[in-house]
Amino acid sequence: MNDTVTDALDAVVRGLSLDSYRWHIFLCADQTKPLCCDKGAGLEAWDYLKRRLKELGLDRGEAAILRTKANCLRVCQHGPILLVYPGGYWYRHANSEVIERVVQEHLLGGKPVQEYLFLTNHP
Ligand code: FES
Q1: Residue 81 CB–ligand 1 contact under 6 Å
Q2: What's the CATH number where 52 sits?
Q3: What is the number of the ligand 1 atom nearest to the C-alpha of 35?
Q4: pLDDT tens, 97-112?
Q5: In the list 35, 102, 111, 113, which could disulfide-bond 76, CB 3.0-4.6 Å?
């Protein structure tokens, strides 16, 4: 890579805190084919997630939690489906109430929300 590319990527890494984030949330929302939940419910969940991470100061910096809107996570039922890495924690029915619990109890508190967890991928 040339220096310009490296500098541009370094700026993105710093801007998004990619070198220090602890968690990355993927949420099925704004789907092309809304199968796991209706489109409105997915968008409402996504908006809530974005707003809460910002309000809690978790959208950047050393404690940053990354978020990515996924068109479909291929589960396609009992959504919105929410996936957390590292660890591969799969949550169902991720509405605003469940998202709040996942953030507070799991990501900040260290205790996964068993009630809505349907799979983990870690050994
Ligand atoms: S539409 Fe949400 S997982 Fe497929």
Answers
A1: yes
A2: 3.40.30.10
A3: 1
A4: 999 999 999 999 999 9
A5: 35
Residue 5 domain-assigned (yes or no)? no
Domain, as residue range, for 69:
20-120
Q: Is 76 in the pocket of ligand 1 (CB under 6 A)?
A: yes
* Residue 91 placed within a domain: yes
Of 73, 74, 95, nearest in space to 83 by CA? 73
| Ligand 1 atom nearest 75 alpha carbon | 3
CA-73 nearest atom, ligand 1: 3
The total number of structural domains in the chain stands at 1
How much distance in Å is there from the Cα of 11 to the middle of ligand 1? 33
What is the pTM assigned to this prediction?
Answer: 0.93
Q: Is 15 within the bounds of a domain?
A: no
What is the tens place of the pLDDT at every residue in 33-65? 999 999 999 999 999 999 999 999 999 888 899
Cα–Cα distances in Å, from 8 out to 1, 3, 20, 22, 27? 11, 8, 18, 23, 27
| CB of residue 74 inside a 6 A radius of ligand 1 | yes
Q: Which of 67, 121, 61 is nearest to 94 (CA)?
A: 67
